[in-house]
Amino acid sequence: MIFRQLFDPVSSTYSYLLASRKGGEALIIDPVLERVDRYLQLIHELDLKLVKAVDTHLHADHITGLGALRDKTHCITVMGEQTKADVVSMRLCDNDKLTIEGLSLDVIYTPGHTDDSYSFVLPDRVFTGDTLLIRGTGRTDFQNGDPRAQFESIFGRLLKLPDSTLVFPAHDYKGDTVSTIGEERAFNPRLQVTSADEYADLMNNLKLSNPKMMDVAVPANMNVGMNQANVMRHGWALTAQQALSVVGLGDVALIDLRENAERQRNGTIPGSLHVPYPSLEESIGAGGMLHELASSTRKRLLFYCAFGERSAMAVQAAHDAGLPLAFHIEGGIDAWKKAEGPIGH
Ligand SMILES: [Fe+2]
């Protein structure tokens, strides 16, 4: 596995780049906007293809690099389903898997620091966001934080992992880089409590000042959705209502870009082909399945995904690949359902 821990000294944030092999797909956890060029350089140097940019939660102390990385690499942005961010390409739930080629991380919902906090688990390590820090825990006094929920997330979920599990947090202010579950259970001063009430008392009396960047970072991080003006301007976007009248026509090929887990959870639009977003490039290239459909059989390609972000990028990519009859459903299957479009399983 390729694993890099990257540090932003301004916000003391750790970001993590993961891949299973040189030349393969990569994902990044908790990227910081100001460090995006550094990440891109490293991704290039390691010959990786960034396919997912993930935030453990909505950050209050730095602006996320999710939007910039998506705009520069066309990767998928990922957060938990509770996030208040306007649009992320994919939303995760408790017990989901976060996957890229050769790697699968278990997704666990660990609220408390915020109500959208998640941790991601590999067999030997866990990325804890701000839920569990090294000899500390993330504050619980804003963004719907809840010390009792955090107690449950830490004691009920994270500390159930094997003692040898490496702990990689989203921040450290003292220069520590990694810990283990066993070490934190024994030596983390916040965890030397016997009940949720005792923990809540401790957390409610920390008297911390707000993060310096909070008034800038929180609104910015809630507006990470892609600017789709270009797709709209060219008339490549159909509202769900408009899509209802063209789905099923003989010259329309409907293409679902989501992953299997999303399809199983949320259903599909009947009659759609499945081309997962990471394989799009190959499929729209010369000789690819979608390329053939669009050029030989003159089908109109109608892409959709979860919230309309992957599909907007797909439309642009199809046009760039010389396929002029490509469109997408604005707002994805989420909007389709609100328009009462039929759903199959
Ligand atoms: Fe945080």
From TrEMBL:
Could you cite one Gene Ontology molecular function of this protein?
hydroxyacylglutathione hydrolase activity
Q: Which UniProt keywords apply?
A: Hydrolase, Metal-binding
Biological-process GO terms, alphabetical? glutathione metabolic process; hydrogen sulfide metabolic process
> Could you tell me the EC number(s) of this protein?
3.1.2.6
Q: Which PROSITE patterns match?
A: RHODANESE_3
Q: Which residues form the Rhodanese domain?
A: 248-345
Highest taxon of the lineage: Bacteria
What SUPFAM superfamilies does the record point to?
Answer: Metallo-hydrolase/oxidoreductase, Rhodanese/Cell cycle control phosphatase
What name has this protein been given in UniProt?
Zn-dependent hydrolase
Instruction: Name the species this protein comes from.
Output: Rhizobium favelukesii
